[in-house]
Structure formats: structure tokens, C-alpha cells
Amino acid sequence: MRQEPLWSGLALVGALHARVSGALAREATGVSIDTRTLKAGDLFFAIKGEARDGHEFVRAAFEKGAAAAVIDEAHAAEFSGSGPLLIVKDVQRSLEMLGKRARERSGAFIAAITGSVGKTSTKDMTRLMLSRFGETHASVASYNNQWGVPLTLARMPAASRFGVFELGMNHAGEITGLVAQVRPHVAVVTRVAAVHLEHFASVEGIADAKAEIFSALDGGVAIVNRDDATYERLAAAAAPTAGHIFSFGESEGAEARLLSYKGIDDGCEVEAEILGKRLAYRIGAPGKHIALNSLAALLIAAVFDIDVEKAALTLADFTPPSGRGAREKLMAPSGPFTLIDESYNANPTSMRSAFELLGATTPGAGGRRIAVLGDMLELGPSGAELHGELAGDLARAKCDLLFTAGPLMASLYYASPNAMRAAHRRTALELEEAVLAALRAGDVVMVKGSNSSRMSRIVAAVRQKFAPQKANQGQ
Questions:
Q1: Most buried residue, 205, 258, 445, 450, by most Cβ within 10 Å?
Q2: DSSP track, 427-448
Q3: Residue 277 has pLDDT above 80, yes or no
Q4: CATH class of 106-317
Q5: What is the CATH number of domain 326-465?
Q6: Sign of the CA dihedral 296, 298, 301, 302?
């Protein structure tokens, strides 16, 4: 089936204020900034990233079937004749211009989500819910920065009924620029925590940076975590631009309130009250933090005039993405064990939530609860102390064995009981062998760390060594 065009060639010229070289592409069916994932018919933007300049890959883009490439004037002569070119002064700025044009032509209801933790799971739950009620466009993975947000906007089909955008930051002022492009009808702050402290003097400073998401509301709805210590600060920041402020959490007064939570197998059962309506529903992923984030997603659904009872039922199909709590059964020589992949990112708040998840698991016969942890980064001068403070949380989770990697994690390792310590190494690579040698039937092993600590390589090594458990065939 032929894919509907996302942009016509003429629309691109107008939106980008581009000079054309070569035959003008009739249409583009997608937008890409990465030739590794580019599909035939995509418009390729030669963005200059932190490590590489996209102009290095223009020819590769055409080899993969790009409809056209957006390049700057400095490279116009170099690529003349290689394919349809849209030549602009600034490629990054042009991507933002196309995103702006996509937003202008869209009649979709738009939600924007940020937070120190929980923004991706909230975005994914919201996307899942809304997609059952109309065409929904959402950020993929964690496309939440200066490249990901305009790219996600530029990819939004004109016919979309809903749009869900994740906004990230590690410096003050970043979200202001991003949310000005998105112009949401609903803006959510999931949680404010001690993340990126190397760039902020305090958690209050982080709250102020997250509150920038309210700056483009123009009478829309702000949704804030009422359990958060910075709730009053966030609500005050939202007041000048928000027509309504709704809250979620366990606290009295929350418009979306968690009444009960029960972990079951690979999910949880939730009772909640959403804008006066009492609901009972199941989520296909465990964790009280997941249940709390589902309240924010349900508030978004309510604001978009969707039946929250029907929306809640969709959450039974929610599963966490890779690196964010996904669970799988693997097979050791002595029998099956469980791997919990939390390797995508980490901070003190998300670590504590992960420890709660680990503590709620039930190992099999002879199995143990095992934590494999890498450094939490961007915590500033108090980084080592913040790692060490997690020892009590790990003990309360009844962790049996602790493996750690990185100089900061040494503080947690040596603050933990002797009986818990299994191995500490300088890097994830050096820790692999010790972890692989320790695993046995019945274990529940959780791997977590900041993305740059490379704990995902341990997850990959565990998967490679221990084949997934096969389902029984027949009776």
C-alpha cells in the first residue's frame, strides 16, 4: 500500500524558505536526521550534531532513497547533482521551521510532558490511550531535545487527532524554546527530583526549569504532581498561563487520586478517583510510580474529552520499553531466572523506585534478588554522597547480592552490608564476567544505571549467554 505523503515538494520549499538544486522532489513521506533509520521517501536534514555533521551522510541518504536532502549553503557545491537539494542558511533552524509549519497546520489536541522522572512512561501510556480513540502522533523513544522535538513535530501528519510530546532539559531555558514550538493544550510535570544537579544550585532551580513547560499554555491545562515537594511552586508558576490546574497523586485534594495499588505478576491493579469518578483498572507493568503516572495520562484523556473509564482499560496493554523496566525470562543451566532491564537511565528517585520493584518480586526456589548498578551521572559535587544514601533503600528491598560499576557506585557498594557485596568494578565491561558467573535458577536480576554508564551492555551479555525460556508446546 502506497504511503500517504507527509509533505509536498512545494510545501517544503515554502516552509523552509529553501533554494532548490536539482529536480524538485514531488513529495516526502517522512523526515529523518539519521541515515541508519532513514526510509525511502524520507526528507533528510543534514543536522550538525555533537559528534558528527549530517553533511557527511548526504550521499548515503540518497543511496537509501531519500526524497531530498536539506543542506546549508556551505555544502551546496559539494553535493550539486547528487540528488534533489533544498539549500538553506541553517539546517537546524530549517528543521524547526518545518516543525512550526506542521504545528500551524494541525488541528490536533496537543499534550506536552516533562519531569525529572516518569515523562517517557507517561508519554507512552498517553499515546497508547489516545491511539484507541483517534490517530495519535507521539515522540518516539526519548526524542525530547533540540533535535527530537522539531523532528517529531515535522513528522506529525496533518490528519492527526492527538499529539503527545516529551520535553527534556539539563539547563535552564531549554524547555522554553521547545514548548514554544509545541504550543500544547495540556502541559504536564510528572515529578521534580535531584537530577542534573551539576547544572542547578538546588531542586527548586530544577522545578523552575521544568515549569517553563507552562509558558506556552495560553489558557490551557496544567497538570502537576500534588505529592511533589515542589507542587506549590509549580502551581504558582502555571497560574499566569493556565486556564485550569489539575493535580494527581495520593494526596487529598488531587483531582486524580490513587486510592490503592497492588503489584501482580508483571503488572499492577489500581483503584483511583479521576475527577470524581472511581475507577479500577489494570496496568501491564508493575510499579507504584507507573500507577501514579497513569493518573496524569488519564487526566490528559479527560481534558481531551475521552471517557476515562474506557481509556483506563487500554492500560492493560501497556508494557515498558526496553531499558525502562521490561522483564523477561531467561534460562540458566540450572533453570529459568528473571531479568529486569532498567538500564536506560538512573537518578536517585528512579533508583529508589526500581529498588521497590525489586523488593516486590518473588524469586524462585533457591533464587535471589540481585541488583547490578552503574553510576548515576550529572549529580554534581554531591554525587558520591547521593549514591551512598541509597544503601538503606537497597536493604529495605531485601537485595541479596549487589554488583556495582563506576567510581560513584563505589560509595553505595561500601555503604552496603558485607553479606550483600558481590563485586565492584571500574566499568560495566569489567563487571560483566562476575555477573554472568553468578546467575542461577530462580534469581531476579535488575540492571540499572545512567545511560552513559553503559549498563545496557551487561543486559545484552546476559541475553546473549542465556537463551529466552521457550513456552511449552502442547500438553
A1: 445
A2: SHHHHHHHHHHH--TT-EEEEE
A3: yes
A4: alpha beta
A5: 3.90.190.20
A6: negative
